[in-house]
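During the no-cost extension, the postdoctoral fellow (Dr. R.K.) reprocessed legacy sequence entries with the updated structure-token encoder. One reprocessed record is reproduced below for audit purposes.
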Amino acid sequence: MDLTAVFALALSFGLILGGNAVEGGHLSSLVQPTAAMIVFGGTIGATWLGATKEELRGLQALIRRVVFPGKADRPKMQSDILRMTTIVRRDGMLAVESQLPSVSDPTLRQALQMLVDGSSGDHVKHMLELEMDMEEHHGMASAKLFEAAGGYSPTIGILGAVLGLIHVMQNLTDPAKLGSGIAVAFVATIYGVGAANLVFLPLGTRLKKIVGGDTEDREMLLVGVTGIVAGANARQMTEMLAPFGRHAGPKPSPSAENEQAA
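Re-encoded structure tokens follow.
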């Protein structure tokens, strides 16, 4: 569980509302259900209109990862790659089959199974690249829905402000209604700009980084599988995986290092 997003939201809203209170403002003046209905209802509708069912389903799964990241265990993945490298160098590709249940990552397990079944290295590489590209494409499309909402929200806030001013102009002869109309006008703008810059756009950025991390994990697996097919030894594989985190994976054992002479 990662509560940094929750803490960041609480900090930003808390300091803004706190600053408003220091200046003599009251929280009650910012609570306008009509403005909220206009801004958030309009933003949700506009975002929904521009999204596909697949993107909405992907967003439902992706939004949970703001608090529950569900990151892949990269050190374990690197350890599995190095272990499979040693086995293939020592006993051949078929010896990997008995070790497949111990491989933690399903994509790596599937790629190794394809190699054991006789698929060529080029075919396995192509399938991994295709799967990686599709996952990144759909993940980014879902994450960008928040960016879209961040674009709609301020504009709809201005729309709410105009509607509030129209209401004010229609009731100039009734002073009792002037205050509520002006409040809706200004608060709608606050809701639109605040929601965009404090919630929608930052969440969109965070989700895109989560998808980028998943893509990096898949790139590491692609490098690992390519190295296994090419017959890399443990030392070479460690060097190939180094860009993905020099301290994330285990160092090869002395026996594994000596196998490069084999």
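The chain has two domains: 1-31, 32-261. Residues 175-230 form the longest helix (56 residues). The remaining legacy entries will be reprocessed before the final report is submitted.
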